Amino acid sequence: MLIYPAIDLQDGVCVRLAQGRFDDATRYGDPRGQLKAFADAGAQWVHIVDLDGAKQGSPAQYELIGELARSVDVRIQSGGGVREREHVQDLLDAGIARVVVGSAAVKRPQDVRAWIEAFGIEHICCAFDVKQREDGAFEVVVGGWTVGGGATIEQALALYPSGALKHILVTDVSRDGILTGPNVELMRTIIAARPDLAVQASGGVATLDDLATLRRTNAAGAIIGRALYERRFTLEDALAG
Predict the structure, then answer these.
(1) pLDDT one-digit tens code per residue, 48-97
(2) Is 75 in contact with 55 (CB distance < 8 Å)?
(3) Distance, first Cα to last Cα, the chain
(4) 54, 106, 163, 221: which could form a disulfide with 149 (CB 3.0–4.6 Å)?
């Protein structure tokens, strides 16, 4: 299982949000130093989110993200406000290894399938951010986690038949940034239903035991944010697991 330490960018600063709330951000400083620290610790990949882009609906910090991508020998997976083909092109041209597509993945699947075909299945990851409804189903939320996307996670994934998509990132928004543990059952369910997909788990990782549990689900990757910033464990220890 790949470990993806996370950098969330807001106004050029590294921050962490609680449950996706833009008004509940903890600032952690310069992303350049943070990225170098992750690289020095041995990270192969780093997950970078353009929060300003996610909020406004188009990439807002791709020049900074490109600068970061060129500054260290680490592959960058990045998204935030990626809604058009040219957004994907701009990020790839800036040096990003894999572009994360969120809202468009559920709202415009035909376009996203065309982007995957054009740019290559390894270069696009579809992010499905979910919240549990009263009926127990997990609904995909869009627009920077602010509105329902009108589809459950199962319905959203059905838009991408086997071979049309490889990399997905699933975030249980209710757990993101609050260190309550990942939604292991949700990950198990998705991975069992779609063994053709490389599933990255996001939201809630607080301990090394959480990572061990996610490994047993056969998750392809885990995104880690606040636990690293608050020194619950080191990136070196996470990578060694």
Answers:
(1) 999 998 888 888 898 999 999 999 999 999 999 999 999 999 999 999 99
(2) no
(3) 9
(4) 106
Q: Would you state the structure tokens that stand for residue 44, as one six-digit string? A: 């192969």
Tokens of 186: 């949700």
Q: Tell me, what amino acid is at 225?
A: G
Give burial (CB, 10 Å; 0-12/13-18/19+) of 125: buried
Residues that are catalytic: 8, 129
CATH of 2-240, one of 3.90.1150.10, 3.40.50.1820, 3.20.20.70, 1.25.40.340: 3.20.20.70
How far is residue 215's CA from residue 3's CA, in Å, rounded to a whole number? 10
**132-159 per-residue burial string, b: 16 or more CB within 10 A, e: under 16:** eeeeeebbbbbebbeeebebbbeebbeb
pTM of the model: 0.93
Q: What are phi and psi of 101, to 5 degrees?
A: -110, 125
Of 227, 147, 214, the closest CA to residue 184 belongs to 214
